[in-house]
Amino acid sequence: MFAQSVGPDNLRIDDDALGSAFCGLCNCAEGNDANRNLIVELDVMKSVEYICENWTDPYVLASAAKLIANLAYSNVYTAMMCLSAHCEEALNMSIRKGGGDKNPDVQEAAMMAFANLSNNESNQTHVGASGAIELAVQVSPAARRSHTCVNIIGGGVNKGQRCLPHIVRVTDTH
Hints:
disordered N terminus, Leucine-rich Repeat Variant, 65% helix, mainly alpha, 0% strand
């Protein structure tokens, strides 16, 4: 399983590579239900949950949250599978680890994911019970795109936030 190969004791994969992998999966999931279903069926969500709970790098956490957002975008099945893998709890932890307003990219991506996970009444209840509403209220003053937080607070159904393909972070090797 992917999560076991990138555990904290295994230094073969660095944060840039991990974030780039999530970036690639996020781009594959954008606008393609077949790819969304495939990513979920390959059980990637357990890895995403593990990484959101155990990593601190903002690029990795934002890329993982964007992946969840794209997987849940307008797809009830994949949103339900993300919730079954406890991704909403992992998103909560990602934001709390950052200390609230320290990582606006992580906050924004997590709020988009919460909005997309809330794509029907049952999922809204599930996401609301996870503490996402309280978290959205706490981070809304610091969020760059406050309408994303409003979608969570106001019940994000039919107001999905799509994460457009994004560029992989490039680091200076000098």
